[in-house]
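Worked example

This section walks through a single chain of length 286. The input is the sequence exactly as stored; nothing has been trimmed or padded.
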Amino acid sequence: MDLKVLTVKEVSESGSVPELKVINMGDKDILLLDGEELTGAKQNRVLNTTVLIGAKSEVIIPVSCTEQGRWSYTSHEFKDSDVMMAYNIKRKKARSVMMNIRTTGTYRSNQSEVWDDIEDLSRNAGVHSRTSAMKDVFESKEKDINDYIKAFNVQVDQNGLMVFINGELMGFDVISSKSAYSVLHPKLIKSSAIEAILVRKKDKKEPDASDAHMFLKDITTCTYTKHKSVGLGWDIRFEGKQKVGSALINEDNVIHMAFFTIDEAEQTGNISGLSRRRSYRRSQGD
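Given that input, the structure is written out below as tokens.
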């Protein structure tokens, strides 16, 4: 974006909440990761799925709103927020996107649920945001988050991470390109750190490597469906006992894979505090 090779903007002057237009003017494919946030234009958004944008191409990408209280231009184009969606919200979004892909063929999330979860995140952080922006929560905890980034430096040859919070296994992300991962590593740490900061407990449970091995073994039993990605390649969606996952595959290479744990209530759809329908809705949104 800084090099003006990639441009992200509203799909039209009036805009559409669940969609954005991406233009890659460069000679290389560009990876946009599920959960990455974009700020500006009419309201902040996050990607609903990982997309590989082909060289010299234009793509309409599926997104979710992370700033409920604004629907007016602050800029013509979007900027990189330098934030990735908070881990628990991203985890729940992955499930709703999977359900929509399978039932409607669209990469839409449950937007009301996303707004509710951001509201809960803000409340837990003691943050009042004028526009109910998720980014405001991250900015309010910037010092603590930076401590996590310093504590979890990217390792030599690292291309993924498995997340434990208070000893509980949350999931993992793996990216085929080590150089791409090194750029995305701080965002992935931020996504987990904001959750860890807000749920700190006195009685800390240490992560257990055997849990990680069992998780990796269990995901091999997941069922899956294959869908055409909105960019290059194929989007594979996985579901198993208390697990959901996705993988972007292009030319037989797994570009990005992510798996999350979900509890039984979430898997059946009976989520505690089920989304409260908002009276506030965008004319073009869900």
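What to look for: The mean pLDDT is 92.
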